[in-house]
Design a protein that fits this description.
Largest sheet: none
Number of strands: 0
Helix content: over 70%
Order of helices and strands: HHHHHHHHHHHHHHHHHHHHHHH
Number of domains: 2
Radius of gyration: 27 Å
Strand content: under 5%
Number of helices: 23
Length: 478
Protein backbone atom coordinates (compact mmCIF):
# COMPACT_ATOMS: atom_id res chain seq x y z
CA UNK A 1 0.00 0.00 0.00
CA UNK A 2 2.81 2.40 0.91
CA UNK A 3 4.66 1.72 -2.35
CA UNK A 4 1.44 2.26 -4.23
CA UNK A 5 0.91 5.70 -2.69
CA UNK A 6 4.58 6.59 -3.23
CA UNK A 7 4.22 5.79 -6.94
CA UNK A 8 1.01 7.83 -7.18
CA UNK A 9 2.67 10.75 -5.41
CA UNK A 10 5.68 10.56 -7.74
CA UNK A 11 3.39 11.03 -10.77
CA UNK A 12 1.49 13.79 -8.95
CA UNK A 13 4.69 15.63 -8.02
CA UNK A 14 5.87 15.55 -11.65
CA UNK A 15 2.51 16.99 -12.70
CA UNK A 16 2.66 19.72 -10.05
CA UNK A 17 6.12 20.80 -11.26
CA UNK A 18 4.98 20.88 -14.90
CA UNK A 19 1.97 23.01 -14.03
CA UNK A 20 3.50 25.59 -11.75
CA UNK A 21 6.58 26.28 -13.84
CA UNK A 22 4.40 27.44 -16.74
CA UNK A 23 3.34 31.04 -16.11
CA UNK A 24 0.62 30.76 -18.80
CA UNK A 25 -1.20 28.33 -16.50
CA UNK A 26 -0.41 29.90 -13.14
CA UNK A 27 -1.10 33.56 -14.04
CA UNK A 28 -4.74 33.14 -15.16
CA UNK A 29 -5.42 30.93 -12.14
CA UNK A 30 -4.02 33.46 -9.68
CA UNK A 31 -5.75 36.36 -11.45
CA UNK A 32 -9.09 34.58 -11.35
CA UNK A 33 -8.60 33.59 -7.72
CA UNK A 34 -7.76 37.16 -6.72
CA UNK A 35 -10.36 39.10 -8.73
CA UNK A 36 -13.47 36.96 -8.61
CA UNK A 37 -14.06 37.28 -4.81
CA UNK A 38 -14.09 41.09 -5.16
CA UNK A 39 -16.57 40.88 -8.03
CA UNK A 40 -18.74 38.56 -5.95
CA UNK A 41 -18.47 40.93 -2.97
CA UNK A 42 -19.71 43.86 -5.07
CA UNK A 43 -22.56 41.70 -6.37
CA UNK A 44 -23.46 40.80 -2.80
CA UNK A 45 -23.60 44.46 -1.83
CA UNK A 46 -25.88 45.24 -4.79
CA UNK A 47 -28.14 42.35 -3.77
CA UNK A 48 -28.26 43.60 -0.16
CA UNK A 49 -29.30 47.07 -1.29
CA UNK A 50 -31.92 45.64 -3.65
CA UNK A 51 -33.41 43.39 -0.95
CA UNK A 52 -33.34 46.26 1.50
CA UNK A 53 -35.55 48.34 -0.81
CA UNK A 54 -37.92 45.66 -2.07
CA UNK A 55 -37.80 42.94 0.60
CA UNK A 56 -36.75 39.32 0.41
CA UNK A 57 -35.35 38.27 3.76
CA UNK A 58 -35.31 34.55 2.87
CA UNK A 59 -33.21 35.21 -0.24
CA UNK A 60 -30.90 37.50 1.72
CA UNK A 61 -30.32 34.84 4.38
CA UNK A 62 -29.34 32.27 1.73
CA UNK A 63 -27.36 34.69 -0.45
CA UNK A 64 -23.89 34.02 0.96
CA UNK A 65 -24.05 30.18 0.67
CA UNK A 66 -25.26 30.58 -2.92
CA UNK A 67 -22.39 32.95 -3.81
CA UNK A 68 -19.90 30.59 -2.15
CA UNK A 69 -21.16 27.76 -4.35
CA UNK A 70 -20.77 29.92 -7.46
CA UNK A 71 -17.29 31.08 -6.43
CA UNK A 72 -16.27 27.47 -6.00
CA UNK A 73 -17.65 26.53 -9.43
CA UNK A 74 -16.02 29.20 -11.60
CA UNK A 75 -12.35 28.42 -10.81
CA UNK A 76 -13.15 24.74 -11.37
CA UNK A 77 -14.62 25.44 -14.79
CA UNK A 78 -11.72 27.66 -15.91
CA UNK A 79 -8.96 25.39 -14.63
CA UNK A 80 -10.60 22.35 -16.15
CA UNK A 81 -8.34 22.78 -19.16
CA UNK A 82 -5.42 21.45 -17.08
CA UNK A 83 -7.23 18.17 -16.48
CA UNK A 84 -8.48 18.01 -20.08
CA UNK A 85 -4.94 17.98 -21.45
CA UNK A 86 -3.43 15.79 -18.71
CA UNK A 87 -2.91 12.83 -21.07
CA UNK A 88 -3.71 14.02 -24.58
CA UNK A 89 -1.73 17.24 -24.07
CA UNK A 90 1.41 15.36 -23.09
CA UNK A 91 0.83 13.05 -26.03
CA UNK A 92 0.77 15.99 -28.46
CA UNK A 93 3.88 17.52 -26.86
CA UNK A 94 5.71 14.18 -27.04
CA UNK A 95 6.45 14.06 -23.29
CA UNK A 96 4.21 11.17 -22.32
CA UNK A 97 6.33 8.28 -23.72
CA UNK A 98 8.90 8.32 -20.87
CA UNK A 99 6.07 8.31 -18.33
CA UNK A 100 4.19 5.47 -19.99
CA UNK A 101 7.37 3.42 -20.41
CA UNK A 102 8.04 3.59 -16.65
CA UNK A 103 7.44 0.51 -14.47
CA UNK A 104 4.43 2.18 -12.85
CA UNK A 105 1.06 0.45 -13.00
CA UNK A 106 -1.75 1.92 -15.09
CA UNK A 107 -3.86 2.81 -12.08
CA UNK A 108 -0.90 4.59 -10.45
CA UNK A 109 -0.42 6.77 -13.53
CA UNK A 110 -4.11 7.55 -13.70
CA UNK A 111 -4.60 8.30 -10.00
CA UNK A 112 -1.48 10.47 -9.91
CA UNK A 113 -2.85 12.65 -12.70
CA UNK A 114 -6.28 12.65 -11.05
CA UNK A 115 -4.85 13.77 -7.71
CA UNK A 116 -3.22 16.83 -9.24
CA UNK A 117 -6.23 17.57 -11.41
CA UNK A 118 -8.45 17.70 -8.32
CA UNK A 119 -6.05 19.39 -5.90
CA UNK A 120 -5.01 22.34 -8.06
CA UNK A 121 -8.43 23.83 -8.93
CA UNK A 122 -9.77 22.91 -5.50
CA UNK A 123 -7.05 24.92 -3.74
CA UNK A 124 -7.79 27.95 -5.93
CA UNK A 125 -11.54 27.57 -5.28
CA UNK A 126 -11.10 27.36 -1.52
CA UNK A 127 -8.72 30.33 -1.45
CA UNK A 128 -11.26 32.37 -3.43
CA UNK A 129 -13.98 31.37 -0.98
CA UNK A 130 -11.83 32.38 2.00
CA UNK A 131 -11.12 35.78 0.43
CA UNK A 132 -14.83 36.31 -0.19
CA UNK A 133 -15.74 35.34 3.39
CA UNK A 134 -13.22 37.88 4.68
CA UNK A 135 -14.67 40.57 2.42
CA UNK A 136 -18.31 40.05 3.45
CA UNK A 137 -17.52 40.48 7.14
CA UNK A 138 -17.86 44.20 6.49
CA UNK A 139 -21.26 43.79 4.83
CA UNK A 140 -24.62 43.85 6.56
CA UNK A 141 -25.52 40.29 5.64
CA UNK A 142 -26.11 37.13 7.67
CA UNK A 143 -22.95 35.03 7.89
CA UNK A 144 -23.67 31.33 7.24
CA UNK A 145 -23.48 28.90 10.10
CA UNK A 146 -20.48 26.63 10.36
CA UNK A 147 -22.67 23.63 9.54
CA UNK A 148 -24.06 25.19 6.34
CA UNK A 149 -20.61 26.43 5.35
CA UNK A 150 -19.20 22.93 5.79
CA UNK A 151 -21.96 21.49 3.60
CA UNK A 152 -21.27 23.99 0.82
CA UNK A 153 -17.53 23.26 0.96
CA UNK A 154 -18.23 19.52 0.80
CA UNK A 155 -20.43 20.13 -2.22
CA UNK A 156 -17.65 22.16 -3.86
CA UNK A 157 -15.22 19.31 -3.23
CA UNK A 158 -17.68 16.85 -4.79
CA UNK A 159 -18.02 19.14 -7.83
CA UNK A 160 -14.24 19.20 -8.20
CA UNK A 161 -13.97 15.42 -8.18
CA UNK A 162 -16.89 15.09 -10.60
CA UNK A 163 -15.60 17.63 -13.12
CA UNK A 164 -11.94 16.65 -13.01
CA UNK A 165 -12.58 12.90 -13.16
CA UNK A 166 -14.87 13.45 -16.17
CA UNK A 167 -12.26 15.68 -17.84
CA UNK A 168 -9.51 13.10 -17.39
CA UNK A 169 -11.71 10.38 -18.90
CA UNK A 170 -12.15 12.70 -21.90
CA UNK A 171 -8.41 13.35 -22.00
CA UNK A 172 -7.72 9.61 -22.19
CA UNK A 173 -10.33 8.98 -24.90
CA UNK A 174 -9.54 12.04 -27.06
CA UNK A 175 -6.71 12.04 -29.60
CA UNK A 176 -6.16 15.82 -29.77
CA UNK A 177 -6.29 18.70 -27.31
CA UNK A 178 -8.77 20.46 -29.59
CA UNK A 179 -11.15 17.52 -29.42
CA UNK A 180 -10.78 17.36 -25.62
CA UNK A 181 -11.56 21.07 -25.25
CA UNK A 182 -14.64 20.74 -27.47
CA UNK A 183 -15.86 17.84 -25.35
CA UNK A 184 -15.45 19.96 -22.22
CA UNK A 185 -19.00 21.25 -22.70
CA UNK A 186 -20.22 17.78 -21.75
CA UNK A 187 -18.67 18.43 -18.34
CA UNK A 188 -19.33 22.13 -17.72
CA UNK A 189 -22.92 22.33 -18.99
CA UNK A 190 -24.34 19.37 -16.99
CA UNK A 191 -22.60 20.55 -13.81
CA UNK A 192 -23.99 24.06 -14.43
CA UNK A 193 -27.50 22.60 -14.57
CA UNK A 194 -26.70 20.62 -11.44
CA UNK A 195 -25.61 23.85 -9.77
CA UNK A 196 -28.99 25.39 -10.58
CA UNK A 197 -30.78 22.53 -8.87
CA UNK A 198 -28.54 22.83 -5.83
CA UNK A 199 -29.26 26.56 -5.76
CA UNK A 200 -32.96 25.75 -5.42
CA UNK A 201 -32.13 23.46 -2.49
CA UNK A 202 -30.17 26.25 -0.81
CA UNK A 203 -32.88 28.90 -1.23
CA UNK A 204 -36.00 26.82 -0.61
CA UNK A 205 -34.81 23.80 1.34
CA UNK A 206 -33.03 23.37 4.63
CA UNK A 207 -29.46 22.41 5.39
CA UNK A 208 -30.24 18.70 5.67
CA UNK A 209 -31.53 18.59 2.08
CA UNK A 210 -28.04 19.46 0.82
CA UNK A 211 -26.85 16.07 2.06
CA UNK A 212 -28.86 14.45 -0.75
CA UNK A 213 -26.98 16.54 -3.31
CA UNK A 214 -23.62 15.77 -1.66
CA UNK A 215 -24.28 12.03 -1.58
CA UNK A 216 -25.58 12.01 -5.16
CA UNK A 217 -22.66 13.98 -6.62
CA UNK A 218 -20.14 11.94 -4.59
CA UNK A 219 -21.63 8.66 -5.80
CA UNK A 220 -21.55 9.81 -9.41
CA UNK A 221 -17.97 11.05 -9.00
CA UNK A 222 -16.87 7.70 -7.57
CA UNK A 223 -18.43 5.88 -10.53
CA UNK A 224 -16.63 8.14 -13.02
CA UNK A 225 -13.31 7.59 -11.22
CA UNK A 226 -14.02 3.86 -11.36
CA UNK A 227 -14.80 4.20 -15.07
CA UNK A 228 -11.51 5.97 -15.76
CA UNK A 229 -9.36 3.53 -13.79
CA UNK A 230 -11.12 0.52 -15.33
CA UNK A 231 -10.60 1.59 -18.94
CA UNK A 232 -7.18 3.24 -18.79
CA UNK A 233 -4.56 1.26 -20.71
CA UNK A 234 -1.29 2.81 -21.80
CA UNK A 235 -1.09 0.66 -24.96
CA UNK A 236 -4.46 2.02 -26.07
CA UNK A 237 -3.29 5.59 -25.41
CA UNK A 238 -0.08 5.17 -27.43
CA UNK A 239 -1.64 3.17 -30.23
CA UNK A 240 -4.24 5.72 -31.33
CA UNK A 241 -3.26 8.64 -33.50
CA UNK A 242 -6.63 9.75 -34.90
CA UNK A 243 -10.28 8.93 -34.34
CA UNK A 244 -12.51 7.95 -37.24
CA UNK A 245 -16.28 7.80 -36.98
CA UNK A 246 -17.17 4.62 -38.84
CA UNK A 247 -20.97 4.40 -38.77
CA UNK A 248 -20.96 1.10 -40.63
CA UNK A 249 -18.70 -0.50 -38.05
CA UNK A 250 -20.77 0.93 -35.20
CA UNK A 251 -23.94 -0.46 -36.76
CA UNK A 252 -22.33 -3.88 -37.27
CA UNK A 253 -21.22 -4.04 -33.63
CA UNK A 254 -24.67 -3.01 -32.40
CA UNK A 255 -26.68 -5.30 -34.67
CA UNK A 256 -24.26 -8.17 -34.12
CA UNK A 257 -24.89 -7.99 -30.40
CA UNK A 258 -28.62 -7.34 -30.79
CA UNK A 259 -29.31 -10.22 -33.20
CA UNK A 260 -26.73 -12.62 -31.81
CA UNK A 261 -26.77 -16.06 -33.43
CA UNK A 262 -30.50 -16.02 -34.13
CA UNK A 263 -31.58 -16.77 -37.69
CA UNK A 264 -35.22 -15.83 -37.20
CA UNK A 265 -37.48 -13.92 -34.84
CA UNK A 266 -38.53 -17.21 -33.27
CA UNK A 267 -34.89 -18.14 -32.58
CA UNK A 268 -34.27 -14.67 -31.20
CA UNK A 269 -37.16 -14.97 -28.72
CA UNK A 270 -36.29 -18.58 -27.88
CA UNK A 271 -32.52 -18.22 -27.41
CA UNK A 272 -31.10 -14.68 -27.41
CA UNK A 273 -33.72 -12.84 -25.36
CA UNK A 274 -33.77 -15.46 -22.54
CA UNK A 275 -29.98 -15.22 -22.41
CA UNK A 276 -30.24 -11.47 -21.88
CA UNK A 277 -32.87 -11.96 -19.19
CA UNK A 278 -30.52 -14.34 -17.37
CA UNK A 279 -27.86 -11.65 -17.37
CA UNK A 280 -30.15 -9.10 -15.70
CA UNK A 281 -31.46 -11.40 -12.96
CA UNK A 282 -29.37 -9.76 -10.26
CA UNK A 283 -30.12 -6.16 -11.36
CA UNK A 284 -33.80 -7.13 -11.60
CA UNK A 285 -33.77 -8.42 -8.03
CA UNK A 286 -32.21 -5.13 -6.90
CA UNK A 287 -34.77 -3.08 -8.83
CA UNK A 288 -37.68 -5.12 -7.44
CA UNK A 289 -36.39 -4.66 -3.89
CA UNK A 290 -35.90 -0.91 -4.39
CA UNK A 291 -39.33 -0.52 -6.02
CA UNK A 292 -41.17 -2.31 -3.22
CA UNK A 293 -39.17 -0.36 -0.63
CA UNK A 294 -40.02 2.96 -2.35
CA UNK A 295 -43.74 2.14 -2.45
CA UNK A 296 -43.74 1.04 1.19
CA UNK A 297 -41.71 4.01 2.41
CA UNK A 298 -43.87 6.51 0.52
CA UNK A 299 -47.07 4.86 1.79
CA UNK A 300 -45.89 4.96 5.41
CA UNK A 301 -44.68 8.55 5.12
CA UNK A 302 -48.07 9.73 3.83
CA UNK A 303 -50.00 7.78 6.47
CA UNK A 304 -47.79 8.96 9.34
CA UNK A 305 -46.94 12.55 8.37
CA UNK A 306 -49.76 13.95 6.24
CA UNK A 307 -52.29 14.04 9.13
CA UNK A 308 -49.87 16.37 10.92
CA UNK A 309 -49.92 18.80 7.98
CA UNK A 310 -53.59 18.48 7.00
CA UNK A 311 -56.53 18.32 9.35
CA UNK A 312 -58.70 15.75 7.55
CA UNK A 313 -62.01 16.27 9.27
CA UNK A 314 -65.08 14.13 8.40
CA UNK A 315 -66.46 17.02 6.32
CA UNK A 316 -63.27 17.33 4.27
CA UNK A 317 -63.10 13.56 3.90
CA UNK A 318 -66.68 13.39 2.58
CA UNK A 319 -66.04 16.31 0.25
CA UNK A 320 -62.94 14.61 -1.21
CA UNK A 321 -64.82 11.33 -1.61
CA UNK A 322 -67.65 13.13 -3.41
CA UNK A 323 -65.18 14.80 -5.74
CA UNK A 324 -63.46 11.48 -6.44
CA UNK A 325 -66.77 9.78 -7.13
CA UNK A 326 -67.76 12.55 -9.54
CA UNK A 327 -64.48 12.14 -11.42
CA UNK A 328 -64.91 8.37 -11.53
CA UNK A 329 -68.29 8.75 -13.20
CA UNK A 330 -66.54 10.58 -16.05
CA UNK A 331 -64.21 7.67 -16.75
CA UNK A 332 -66.42 6.52 -19.63
CA UNK A 333 -65.06 9.46 -21.61
CA UNK A 334 -61.43 8.56 -20.86
CA UNK A 335 -60.92 6.94 -24.26
CA UNK A 336 -62.08 10.18 -25.86
CA UNK A 337 -59.77 12.30 -23.73
CA UNK A 338 -56.63 10.19 -24.17
CA UNK A 339 -56.16 7.35 -26.61
CA UNK A 340 -54.23 4.15 -26.06
CA UNK A 341 -51.54 5.08 -28.66
CA UNK A 342 -50.89 8.41 -26.92
CA UNK A 343 -50.65 6.70 -23.54
CA UNK A 344 -48.32 4.09 -25.03
CA UNK A 345 -46.13 6.85 -26.48
CA UNK A 346 -45.83 8.66 -23.15
CA UNK A 347 -44.96 5.47 -21.26
CA UNK A 348 -42.39 4.40 -23.85
CA UNK A 349 -40.84 7.88 -23.82
CA UNK A 350 -40.54 7.75 -20.02
CA UNK A 351 -38.69 4.42 -20.26
CA UNK A 352 -36.30 5.84 -22.89
CA UNK A 353 -35.66 8.89 -20.67
CA UNK A 354 -34.76 6.54 -17.83
CA UNK A 355 -32.25 4.88 -20.17
CA UNK A 356 -30.67 8.18 -21.25
CA UNK A 357 -30.36 9.38 -17.67
CA UNK A 358 -29.06 5.97 -16.64
CA UNK A 359 -26.35 5.86 -19.32
CA UNK A 360 -25.23 9.39 -18.42
CA UNK A 361 -24.98 8.45 -14.73
CA UNK A 362 -24.12 4.73 -14.88
CA UNK A 363 -27.64 3.76 -13.91
CA UNK A 364 -28.06 6.02 -10.87
CA UNK A 365 -30.32 8.75 -12.32
CA UNK A 366 -32.44 6.20 -14.17
CA UNK A 367 -33.01 4.31 -10.93
CA UNK A 368 -33.73 7.60 -9.14
CA UNK A 369 -36.48 8.50 -11.63
CA UNK A 370 -37.85 4.98 -11.25
CA UNK A 371 -37.95 5.36 -7.45
CA UNK A 372 -39.80 8.66 -7.81
CA UNK A 373 -42.49 6.92 -9.88
CA UNK A 374 -42.77 4.10 -7.37
CA UNK A 375 -42.98 6.65 -4.58
CA UNK A 376 -45.97 8.26 -6.33
CA UNK A 377 -47.73 4.89 -6.35
CA UNK A 378 -47.15 4.51 -2.62
CA UNK A 379 -48.28 8.09 -2.00
CA UNK A 380 -51.58 7.52 -3.83
CA UNK A 381 -52.23 4.35 -1.85
CA UNK A 382 -51.38 6.17 1.39
CA UNK A 383 -53.75 9.00 0.52
CA UNK A 384 -56.51 6.47 -0.18
CA UNK A 385 -55.91 4.90 3.22
CA UNK A 386 -56.31 8.27 4.96
CA UNK A 387 -59.67 8.71 3.23
CA UNK A 388 -60.90 5.35 4.45
CA UNK A 389 -60.51 3.60 1.09
CA UNK A 390 -58.91 0.17 1.10
CA UNK A 391 -55.42 0.50 -0.45
CA UNK A 392 -55.52 -3.16 -1.44
CA UNK A 393 -58.84 -2.72 -3.24
CA UNK A 394 -57.62 0.41 -5.03
CA UNK A 395 -54.41 -1.33 -6.06
CA UNK A 396 -56.26 -4.43 -7.29
CA UNK A 397 -58.76 -2.45 -9.38
CA UNK A 398 -56.89 0.71 -10.39
CA UNK A 399 -53.25 -0.33 -10.75
CA UNK A 400 -52.86 -4.09 -11.00
CA UNK A 401 -54.81 -4.79 -14.25
CA UNK A 402 -52.55 -2.68 -16.45
CA UNK A 403 -49.72 -2.62 -13.93
CA UNK A 404 -49.00 -6.32 -14.51
CA UNK A 405 -47.71 -5.35 -17.96
CA UNK A 406 -46.64 -1.75 -17.42
CA UNK A 407 -44.71 -2.33 -14.21
CA UNK A 408 -43.14 -5.48 -15.64
CA UNK A 409 -41.90 -3.48 -18.63
CA UNK A 410 -40.57 -0.72 -16.40
CA UNK A 411 -38.87 -3.10 -13.95
CA UNK A 412 -37.16 -5.03 -16.75
CA UNK A 413 -36.06 -1.85 -18.57
CA UNK A 414 -34.64 -0.27 -15.42
CA UNK A 415 -32.84 -3.52 -14.59
CA UNK A 416 -31.30 -3.50 -18.07
CA UNK A 417 -30.29 0.15 -17.56
CA UNK A 418 -28.68 -0.71 -14.23
CA UNK A 419 -26.82 -3.59 -15.88
CA UNK A 420 -25.62 -1.27 -18.65
CA UNK A 421 -24.22 1.17 -16.07
CA UNK A 422 -22.45 -1.64 -14.23
CA UNK A 423 -21.01 -2.93 -17.52
CA UNK A 424 -19.45 0.46 -18.30
CA UNK A 425 -17.49 0.58 -15.03
CA UNK A 426 -16.39 -3.07 -15.18
CA UNK A 427 -12.83 -3.61 -16.49
CA UNK A 428 -12.73 -5.57 -19.77
CA UNK A 429 -9.37 -5.71 -21.47
CA UNK A 430 -10.72 -6.92 -24.82
CA UNK A 431 -13.21 -4.07 -25.38
CA UNK A 432 -12.91 -0.30 -25.53
CA UNK A 433 -15.29 2.05 -23.75
CA UNK A 434 -17.16 2.73 -26.98
CA UNK A 435 -17.62 -0.97 -27.69
CA UNK A 436 -18.92 -1.57 -24.17
CA UNK A 437 -21.42 1.25 -24.61
CA UNK A 438 -22.71 -0.28 -27.85
CA UNK A 439 -22.97 -3.71 -26.23
CA UNK A 440 -24.87 -2.23 -23.27
CA UNK A 441 -27.27 -0.36 -25.57
CA UNK A 442 -27.83 -3.50 -27.66
CA UNK A 443 -28.68 -5.56 -24.56
CA UNK A 444 -31.06 -2.86 -23.33
CA UNK A 445 -32.67 -2.67 -26.78
CA UNK A 446 -33.30 -6.41 -26.66
CA UNK A 447 -35.32 -6.01 -23.49
CA UNK A 448 -37.02 -2.81 -24.63
CA UNK A 449 -38.05 -3.98 -28.11
CA UNK A 450 -38.62 -7.63 -27.27
CA UNK A 451 -40.60 -7.24 -24.04
CA UNK A 452 -41.14 -3.67 -22.88
CA UNK A 453 -42.79 -2.25 -26.01
CA UNK A 454 -45.33 -5.10 -26.39
CA UNK A 455 -46.12 -4.98 -22.67
CA UNK A 456 -46.54 -1.20 -22.72
CA UNK A 457 -48.91 -1.46 -25.70
CA UNK A 458 -51.05 -4.04 -23.88
CA UNK A 459 -50.96 -1.94 -20.69
CA UNK A 460 -52.13 1.17 -22.57
CA UNK A 461 -55.15 -0.66 -23.99
CA UNK A 462 -56.09 -2.07 -20.58
CA UNK A 463 -55.58 1.27 -18.83
CA UNK A 464 -57.88 3.10 -21.27
CA UNK A 465 -60.65 0.52 -21.75
CA UNK A 466 -60.58 -1.88 -18.76
CA UNK A 467 -59.23 -0.09 -15.68
CA UNK A 468 -61.91 2.68 -15.73
CA UNK A 469 -64.67 0.07 -15.70
CA UNK A 470 -63.08 -1.76 -12.77
CA UNK A 471 -62.77 1.51 -10.84
CA UNK A 472 -66.47 2.26 -11.44
CA UNK A 473 -67.32 -1.17 -10.07
CA UNK A 474 -65.59 -0.46 -6.73
CA UNK A 475 -67.07 3.04 -6.30
CA UNK A 476 -69.80 1.75 -3.95
CA UNK A 477 -67.09 0.44 -1.61
CA UNK A 478 -65.47 3.88 -1.22
Amino acid sequence: MRRNWEAIWMVARREFVDQFRDWRIVAPMVLLMALFPFIADDTTQEAIEFMGRFGGNLILERLVPFVILVIGFFPLSFTLVVALESFVGEKERGTIEPLLSSPLDDHQLYLGKLLVGIATPLVFSFVSIVIYLILITRRDVAFPSFYLLALVLLLTFAHAVLMVSSAIVISVQATTVRAANLLASFVVVPVAFLLQGETALIFWGNESVLWYAIVGVTLLSALIVRLGVSHFRREYLLGREIDTLNFKQLWLVFTGRFVGNAESIRDWYAVELPETLKQIRRPLAIVLLLGVAAIGASYLWVVVNVPGYLDISPEIENRIKTLVNQNLTDLDDLSGQISAPVLFYHNARAVVIMLLLGVASFGTLGVTLFLVNMGLVGGVLGGASLLGVSPGLLFAAGILPHGIFELSAVFLSVAATLKAGALLVTPQQDKSLGELLLVALADWSRVFIGIALPFLAIAAVIEVYVTPQLLKMIVPYF
